[in-house]
Fold this sequence. Notes:
Elements: H1 4-11, H2 17-37, H3 43-58, H4 60-72, H5 95-109, H6 127-139, H7 152-168, E1 178-182, H8 185-202, E2 209-213, H9 218-227, E3 230-234, H10 244-249, E4 255-261, H11 273-283, E5 286-290, E6 320-323, E7 336-340, H12 343-347, E8 351-353, E9 361-363, H13 372-409, E10 415-416, E11 424-428, H14 434-443, E12 449-451, E13 456-460, H15 470-494, H16 508-512, H17 518-530
Parallel strand pairs: 2-3, 2-4, 4-5, 5-6
Antiparallel strand pairs: 1-7, 6-7, 8-9, 10-11, 11-13, 12-13
Amino acid sequence: MSTVKDLINRHFEGHQPATIALEVAVAILGAQYLVSLVEPGEILPRLDRAKWTLVRKLFSSIVRDKVVKAADAIKYPALAGDEPTTRIPSHGMKADDVVEKALVLHHGLDVDYRKGTLSGAVYHGGDAHTMMVNRVMEIFQWSNPLHVDVFGAPRKMEAEIVAMVLKMYNGDARPGSCGALTSGGTESIGMAMKSYRDWGRSRGITSPSIVAPVTAHPAFDKACAYYGLRLIKVPVGASGRVDPVELESYIRYDTIAIVGSAPTFPHGTVDPIKELSQIAVAHNVGLHVDCCLGSFIMPFLEKAGFPGHVVDFRLPGVTTISCDTHKYGFAPKGTSVIMYANSKLREYQFFACSMWPGGIYCSPGASGSKAGNVIAGTWAAMLAMGEDGYIESCRSIVSARIKMTDAIQSLPFLHLLGTPSASVFGFSSNVIDIYVLSDQLKARGWALNPLQFPGGLQFSVTLLQAQEGVADRFVADICELGGALYTAAMKDAAEGRPQKIGAQGGTLYGSQQRVSDRSILDDVMRVYLDGYYSTGAVVTK
C-alpha cells in the first residue's frame, strides 16, 4: 500500500521546483479560504449575502426606486417663511441681526433639553455650569493647539485632561500608560482600531480581524470600514452580556484585538471585562474597553454607594480604553480620551511626514487642527466639577435610573433588557407594541432611542432626569400610556384578536426589522444622509 509520502512524490515527479512551490502555496491559500467559510457565525451570513446580492442584481431598478421613496418619507425640519442661506450675503449683516437670526433658528428648530425629556444628548444642562464653561471657551475662541508654539495653553490643558482621565481609570496600575484627546468616542475607537491594525502588521498580520459582541457600538463597524479591518461579531443572549467562552471561540489566527463595553449602549449591561482580560492575555491580543458611555459614571459607582465594576488598567489584559469627556464629564461637544496601556501602542496612532515641501508635519490623531476653545472648556468642566462633584452627579443619575427601572419591573406589560447597573437601560414588552408606546411618549416630549433585535426602547439617564419630578413624570407617563395599551391588548386577546407587536407590528421601526436584506436599509440611510446637506427641507414647524 502506498504511503502518503509515495503519493506526494509521484504527484510531483518531473515537476520543476518553482511549480511545486506554486502548487503548495495555492493549496495552502485555498485551504485557508475554505476554513474561513466555515468559521463560527460565517456560513449563514455568507449564504444570505450571496442570496440578496443576486436578488438586488435582478431587481436593481425596483429596489432603487423603493429606496428613494423610503428616504423621501423622512424629512428634515425647517421654519415656515424662512429663506435658506445658500450664498454669502453681498453685504455683511449687522452683528445684532446675525444673533437674532441664530436665535430664531434655535427657538424654532431645537428641542428644549432643559425639560429633561431627552435620552442622553445633553448630559448636564445647568445654567451656572454652562456659563462658566462658556466664559473659559471665549478666552480661547481662536486657539488651535496644532500651532503649539503659538497656543501653549490649550496644549497644556489637553495633556492635563488626558492625565486626569488616566488617573480616573487607574493608569497608575500600568506604568507607562498614556493617552490622547480626540473629537469624540467614534474617533477614540477609530484611533484604537487603527493602532491595533498597525501593531498587527508589525507582527506580520496583513489582514487583521477584530472580535466584538453585536452590542458593541457602530463606531467599531465604522473604524473597521475605514481602516480595512474585518469585524467578527459575537451573538449576545438575553442577559445582554457577551459570553466570554463563546467570544473566545471566534478568535482567529489573524485576530489582533477583542472588545468589551462598560456599559453597552442598547441595554446598559457591563460585559465581563475581567474574563475578557484573561482571554486577551491567553491569546496575546489586545482588549479594548469601550467606556465612552460609562465615562465618568463607571469609575465613581462604588464611591457613590453602588456596586462597582473593575473595567480599567488594573486588569492586565486591558490595552486600550475609550472615555467620552463630553458625556458624563459635562464637557462641551466634542472631546473624548483614548487611553493606551503603553506608549509603544499609542505610537501607532501618531502620524508624521518629514518629506513635505511645506515643512515637517506631525499630528497625534486623525484631526490636524483642533478647537482650542473646546479643549479649554473640557479642562474647565473637570476642574469645576471635581471628584466630589462627579461622585454626587453619579449618585443622582444612577438613583434616577433605579427609580425608572424599578417602576418598569413592577409593570406587567414591560420588562428590562439585560441587567443595567449604571446610568443606561433598555426595556421592551411581549404584550404591547413597544414602538406604539414610543410614539405616544414622543407626543408628550419624551425622546427615547428605539432598539431592534429585539425591539425595545433605550434611555441614557443624565443629570437632567435627576431634576426633581422628572423621573416621576416619566414613570407616570409609561404607567398611563402603557397601561392603556395593555388594557386594549388584554381586551383584544380575550376577544380572539391577538395583536402583532414589535418587529411584527405596523410601525415604521417595527416593519423595517422585517427587511431581510439589511443593505437595503443601509442604502436608505445613505440617501437620508445625502439630504442632510439639502437646504430645501420640508417645513414641519
